Amino acid sequence: MTNEQSCIQLTVISPVFNGRKYIEKCLENVAAQRFEGLEHLIMDGGSNDGTPEIVREWSSRFPHIRLISEKDRGQSDAMNKGIREARGSLIGFLNVDDYYEPGILPQIPGLFEQLPNPSFICGNLNIWNPDGSLRHFNRPEKISLLELLTDKFEWPYNPSAYFYHKSLHELCGFYNEQNHYCMDYEFILEAAQCISLRHTDQLWGN
Asked: How far apart are CA 32 and CA 78, in angstroms?
């Protein structure tokens, strides 16, 4: 392991398959707020639309970008592969058509410094309509297991607005590879049975 690899604190994992339309904006969004301890891991499922070539070109200019391109069994499988490959002790997921608010990523490691390991922190989220109008502002303040299981709640809706210790998977297991649509909600329910989830009232994701 190189010195650069050993100082990585946060790995952002982006699963993608034929995401040429979005991939450059995704890479740019993360690169614009890069800090020394950041890794952006692109888990490509064997795209044939030029996505891997775009990522390789970016990674030649930005060493925090790392590409793994191979066929997978769907998004959950790609996410689990990314977790196993991640060099950071903290994990975040960014889908290629989502994005972070400016300046969020450098703040994340500091938020975990005084917390037990493992911990899970979520922020707030903008959910946008295709026409660019705001559909909903997600503020998941009440995220105990009981509250997550009720009919009306504000659960952490999208991974662009939460981060957690990689070690959480040692307690809760990995993402359910048979679940291709709400694997994140299922994992959050598992996590809420193992630890207390935390919320910070700051806009993080879109």
From this structure: 25
